[in-house]
Amino acid sequence: MDKANNALIAPPIDAQIENQVCHTDSTKQAYRSKMRSGFAMLEIVIGIAIVSLIIAAAVVYGPKMMVGRKSDIGFASFKSIDTALVDVYNSNGAAYPSGTGAISTTTSLYNALGGATATKDLTGWTYSCTAGSGKTMTIVTTPFESAEVQSSLVDKINGRALPWTAAASGTNAVTITKTNVTCN
User: How many degrees, rounded to 5, is the angle at CA 76 between CA 101 and CA 154?
Assistant: First the structure.
């Protein structure tokens, strides 16, 4: 009964074509090796299309991802300064350090940041706050690679770091301010 049922099942399409095209065992073997070797043209075209789409996506979206990453680094640098300023504020009788110049020249801030190793990424950033109350404390970054990075950092600070405010300044630099503070 099983043999009868097997006889009713049609052979696969490849086998049907092989039987129509090939009449001897040697031509069947040649046909099989020809049919099974290498990739089909359609497979190659699909592979090339997929690789092309990946490359196009990288070209279009790669620079945008780098803008976000670079502004994240700038924001992290700002947050480390903010944390160090809070430490100085708490240990300095509720006053921020006064002074003007590079971050590394404001001793209490420089030390709170961890010294030379911790401030190497802040080279060129400046800090200023004149002694007294009701003053404005200002941090100015070094210029970033592009206006897009600058704009992204300004948005991040204004959106996530209140009461600080940020604005574009100069060529791709950012000025970050906090008003009504006491510095000494």
Answer: 75
Residues 108, 87: Cα–Cα separation, whole Å = 9
d(CA 176, CA 70): 17
The pair of structure tokens assigned to 97 is 């350090």
pLDDT reading at 121 higher than 80? no
The tens digit of pLDDT for each residue in 55-85 reads 988 888 877 778 888 899 999 999 999 999 9
What does the alpha-carbon distance between residue 122 and residue 113 come to, in Å, rounded to a whole number?
Answer: 10
Rounded distance between C-alpha atoms, residue 13 and residue 109, angstroms: 79
Indicate the length of the chain as a whole number. Answer: 184
In which element (H, E) is residue 60 found?
Answer: helix 41-91
